[in-house]
Amino acid sequence: MENKLGLRLENLCEQFNYDYKTISKKLGYSENTFGHYVRGVRTPDYHTLIKIADLFNVSLDYLLRGKEFSYNRKDHLNDLLPILDRIGAQKASIHLSEHWDSLTDDNLKEVVSHFEWVLDRQNYLKK
Fold it and tell me: How many CB atoms are closer than 10 A to CB 47?
């Protein structure tokens, strides 16, 4: 049987540039524990899954099922509008839902990836 959780954990490690020992230590476990989860030697309990999800800022849905909870994009865009207004982006095309509706899932993933890169850069610059 394919270890899909292990593949997701491995991908998250690569994305965040962590090795297994570092993650094990961050989780408060022995050095090899996380590697055992990745290889499917051990299965994390639900407390550990929560810690892992928090560490990588992903949902349990993503860890267990490989996909995020489905939601209405327009509702979340409406939450973003006041923030954009605060920085003076009232006329930005990001406000226009018809532009967002025309984007494919791959386009949206690219937008999210760029946003995550900006956040990572900002966090790095704060250090």
Answer: 8
* Token pair listed for 51: 């810690």
pLDDT digits (tens, 9 = 90+) for 8-55: 999 999 998 999 989 989 899 988 899 999 999 999 998 999 999 999
Task: Report the C-alpha gap between 101 and 84 in whole angstroms.
Answer: 19
Report the C-alpha gap between 24 and 31 in whole angstroms: 5
- Please check the confidence at residue 71 and state whether its pLDDT lies above 60: no
Sign of CA dihedral 94, 99, 101, 103: negative
Q: Which two tokens stand for residue 88?
A: 């003076």
